[in-house]
């Protein structure tokens, strides 16, 4: 593999921020995803070609994002991504985001490569990623694996119908789209800055499915986020109570 980190530069657009002036949660994930997909195009092949010709798809299982500095409209940012050594069928991917020389965001994610014909996992030994940018796994101050504690009281917050523009080439709700949908249920969202987002993607939400959204109260952060004043958990379900995703947001008072 190539030592180093694959960079891409962007300027944040005004409509990518919310009423607090901060970058929207979903847009953060979209920028990370865009950088990863462009790295794939440059160092491997276009993702559409991978899906249509090789019948393979990358699917994320976990995404952990730590926000060190809020980003705003017209900020110039550089996002870098890279993969790391691992075993079996796990394809880890790390990110960092700089605004000028200031570190704004760090992130770590786990991905699987799926054979879409056989519906099976592709092992690392079965797919050549030797041309990918490579480095050590990104270290975070938040856990990269978590479970909602069993004694956490969750209540139904709402239902989201998965519509056409929520989905991607796989026909499921795109992983980035969950963040805004969930964050809209946070009490008094203008009162908080997001310090972290942690997602465990368990099962897909297909087009035209109805996704039940359950949420906790605002809770002490404990070991989920050392920079947060509060955290909040979400869990979603699709079709006959099938667990879809679990998420945790770290929040700091403005």
Question: What's the number of structural domains?
Answer: 2
Structural class of the secondary structure composition? mainly beta
- Helical amount: 10-25%
Number of strands: 13
Largest sheet composition: 11 strands, antiparallel
CATH superfamily of the largest domain: Hotdog Thioesterase
Output the CATH topology of the largest domain.
Thiol Ester Dehydrase, Chain A
Distance between the termini: 43 Å
Assembly type of the shown chains? single chain
CATH class of the largest domain: Alpha Beta
What does the average pLDDT come to? Answer: 95
Count the DSSP helices.
3
Strand content: 35-45%
The rough form would be described as: globular
Residue windows where pLDDT falls under 50 for at least 5 positions:
none
Rg from Cα? 18 Å
- SSE string, helices as H and strands as E: EEHHEEEEEEEHEEEE
Please give the CATH architecture of the largest domain. Roll
Short description:
With 254 residues, the chain is mostly beta strands.
Provide structural commentary.
By secondary structure, the chain is mainly β. The chain has two domains: 2-134, Hotdog Thioesterase (Thiol Ester Dehydrase, Chain A, Roll), CATH 3.10.129.10; 154-253, Thiol Ester Dehydrase, Chain A (Roll), CATH 3.10.129. The chain is 13% helix and 39% strand. The chain has helices at 25-43, 47-53, 178-183, and strands at residues 2-3, 6-11, 56-67, 76-83, 91-99, 102-115, 120-121, 133-134, 155-161, 192-201, 210-215, 230-238, 242-253. The strands form two sheets. Strands 2, 3, 4, 5, 6, 7, 9, 10, 11, 12 and 13 form an eleven-stranded antiparallel beta sheet that branches. The chain has a two-stranded parallel ribbon with strand order 1-8. The protein is globular. It starts with a strand and ends with a strand. The model has no long low-confidence stretch (mean pLDDT 95).
């Amino acid at each position: 593999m190539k030592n180093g980190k694959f960079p891409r530069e962007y300027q944040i657009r005004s409509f990518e921020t919310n009423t607090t002036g901060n970058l929207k949660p979903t847009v953060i994930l979209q920028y990370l995803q865009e950088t990863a997909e462009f790295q794939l195009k440059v160092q491997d092949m276009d993702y559409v070609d991978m899906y249509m010709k090789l019948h393979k798809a990358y699917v994320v299982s976990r995404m952990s994002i730590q926000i060190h500095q809020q980003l705003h409209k017209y900020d110039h940012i550089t996002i870098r991504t890279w993969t790391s050594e691992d075993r079996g069928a796990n394809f880890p991917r790390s990110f960092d985001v700089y605004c000028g020389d200031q570190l704004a965001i760090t992130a770590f994610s786990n991905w699987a490569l799926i054979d879409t014909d056989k519906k099976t996992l592709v092992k690392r030994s079965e797919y050549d990623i030797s041309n990918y940018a490579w480095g050590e796994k990104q270290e975070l101050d938040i856990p990269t694996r978590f479970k909602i504690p069993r004694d956490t009281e969750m209540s139904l917050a709402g239902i989201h119908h998965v519509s056409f523009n929520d989905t991607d080439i796989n026909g499921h709700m795109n992983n980035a789209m969950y963040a805004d949908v969930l964050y809209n249920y946070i009490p008094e969202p203008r009162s908080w800055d997001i310090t972290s987002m942690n997602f465990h993607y368990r099962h897909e939400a297909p087009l035209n499915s109805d996704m039940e959204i359950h949420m906790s109260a605002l809770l002490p952060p404990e070991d989920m986020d050392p920079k947060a004043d509060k955290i909040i958990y979400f869990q979603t379900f699709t079709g006959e109570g099938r667990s879809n995703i679990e998420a945790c947001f770290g929040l700091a008072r403005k």
